[in-house]
């Protein structure tokens, strides 16, 4: 294709699906673009990558790349969006919206350190802008740098006390510190300032759900869905509420609606699998967990849940492979190690089980369930002295958490070995 026509053809496709140079990153939706147009656009993009040097003097190129990046961001293809934003910045290094969207895309991709670098750059370009400082605070918060996050947050609120993004980040910060009531107060304050704040509605709904106030949570999510009926996160959150209420059919309905909008969201497939498991639809649950790991092979929870299902079905070999994969992805996850230990006990692999409970204890030394199972394995291995000491440790741990019944059981087991 002639290079002069290529950009024009790409722009016409983008015009047809309404993709602009600016997007609402709080309310991302997959563009309504048919399969044939997707294929055509992919061909055009491939041609553009091959001949991009020929467009170096074409003033349309940065805007076209920007719109393509936004299209892929909305579609959930974060890696491609970030790559295209980077191309834009290679042409226009100080284009603020490209830096901003790139940073937000890194946040969505769970790469907060890369996001920090983006927001630092734009903060240097545009100092003393409250929203930029709030995003920088959010990135530092997600990177685990709480003191840095607090500094940027304080500066943002000093500049603009009612900055939406800053109040939202402040609620996250307060929640992390365990100051739950203050966190919800900040969200209520934000929603009075901006009743249409999606992050605040979703965050407050989540917190109300965790507090057991599901009616308030449902009202908040209904508000969100009245504004945007196809918001996948709000639909998923409503599914979470029905799941907590043991209304699994309703939960599944909302998970399916969310997946109809964003079918590539691995965590949603895990939730769908959980709902199917609760309904004893094991084949559908297995298919959902398999879909989750196919979309994200590093989703350790999906691997583990699929393993648990396979173990229930008696396929210990396949279950163990899933457990091994999950633990390789999250080697310090005590629950995963504990579950694999239980599987090893069932398979008669007691030494392997002992190793797993030791791994679980290393990650959670104050959880008595790990030491309890360790004591059982030591008895099965006919190591009574070690088992007796382990039961005594388990007794002390259960006493420390206020579980006298389990403490008494452990004490009785220890005396029996005396």
Q: What's a quick, concise take on this entry?
A:
The protein is mostly helical and 418 residues long.
What would you note in describing this structure?
The chain is mainly alpha-helical and 418 residues long. Among the domains are: 1-109, no CATH class; 336-417, Serine Threonine Protein Phosphatase 5, Tetratricopeptide repeat (Alpha Horseshoe). 76% of the residues lie in helices and 0% in strands. It is built from 23 helices and no strands. The radius of gyration is 26 Å and the shape is globular. The mean pLDDT is 92.
Tell me the layout of helices and strands.
Layout: H1 3-16, H2 35-51, H3 61-75, H4 78-91, H5 96-108, H6 112-125, H7 130-142, H8 146-159, H9 164-176, H10 180-193, H11 198-210, H12 214-227, H13 232-244, H14 248-261, H15 266-278, H16 282-295, H17 300-312, H18 316-329, H19 334-346, H20 350-363, H21 368-380, H22 384-400, H23 404-416
| Number of helical segments with 4 or more residues | 23
Average residue pLDDT? 92
The description of the largest β-sheet is: none
Low-confidence stretches at least 5 residues in length (pLDDT < 50)?
Answer: none
Radius of gyration from the alpha-carbon trace, in angstroms: 26 Å
List keywords for this structure.
418 residues; mainly alpha; Serine Threonine Protein Phosphatase 5, Tetratricopeptide repeat; 0% strand
């Amino acid at each position: 294709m002639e290079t002069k026509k290529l950009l024009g053809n790409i722009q016409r496709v983008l015009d047809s699906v309404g993709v602009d140079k600016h997007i609402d990153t709080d309310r991302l939706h997959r563009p309504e673009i048919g399969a044939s147009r997707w294929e055509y656009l992919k061909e055009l993009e491939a041609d553009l990558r091959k001949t991009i040097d020929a467009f170096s003097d074409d003033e349309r190129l940065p805007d076209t790349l920007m719109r393509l990046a936004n299209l892929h961001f909305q579609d959930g293809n974060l890696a491609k969006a970030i790559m295209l934003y980077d191309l834009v910045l290679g042409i226009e290094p100080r284009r603020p919206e490209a830096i901003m969207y790139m940073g937000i895309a890194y946040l969505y991709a769970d790469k907060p350190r890369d996001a920090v670098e983006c927001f630092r750059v734009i903060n240097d370009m545009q100092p003393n802008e409250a929203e930029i400082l709030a995003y920088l605070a959010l990135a530092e918060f997600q990177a685990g740098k709480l003191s840095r996050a607090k500094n940027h947050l304080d500066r943002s609120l000093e500049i603009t006390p009612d900055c939406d993004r800053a109040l939202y980040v402040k609620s996250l910060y307060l929640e992390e510190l365990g100051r739950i009531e203050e966190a919800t107060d900040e969200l209520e304050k934000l929603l009075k300032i901006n009743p249409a704040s999606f992050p605040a509605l979703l965050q407050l709904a989540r917190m109300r759900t965790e507090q057991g106030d599901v009616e308030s949570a449902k009202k908040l999510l209904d508000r969100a869905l009245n504004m945007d009926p196809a918001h996948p996160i709000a639909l998923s959150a409503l599914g979470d509420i029905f799941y907590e209420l043991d209304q699994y059919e309703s939960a599944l309905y909302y998970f399916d609606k969310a997946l109809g909008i964003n079918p590539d969201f691995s965590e949603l497939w895990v939730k769908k699998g959980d709902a199917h498991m609760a309904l004893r639809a094991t084949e559908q649950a297995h298919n959902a967990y398999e879909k989750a790991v196919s979309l994200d092979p590093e989703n350790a929870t999906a691997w583990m849940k699929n393993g648990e299902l396979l173990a229930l079905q008696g396929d210990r070999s396949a279950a163990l492979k899933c457990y091994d994969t999950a633990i390789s992805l999250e080697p310090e996850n005590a629950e995963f190690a504990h579950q694999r230990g239980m599987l090893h006990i069932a398979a008669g692999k007691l030494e392997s089980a002992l190793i797993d409970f030791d791994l679980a204890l290393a990650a959670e030394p104050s959880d008595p369930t790990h030491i309890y199972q360790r004591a059982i394995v030591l008895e099965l291995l006919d190591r009574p002295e070690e088992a007796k000491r382990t039961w005594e440790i388990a007794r002390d741990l259960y006493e420390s958490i206020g579980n006298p019944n389990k403490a008494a059981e452990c004490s009785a087991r220890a005396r029996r070995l005396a």
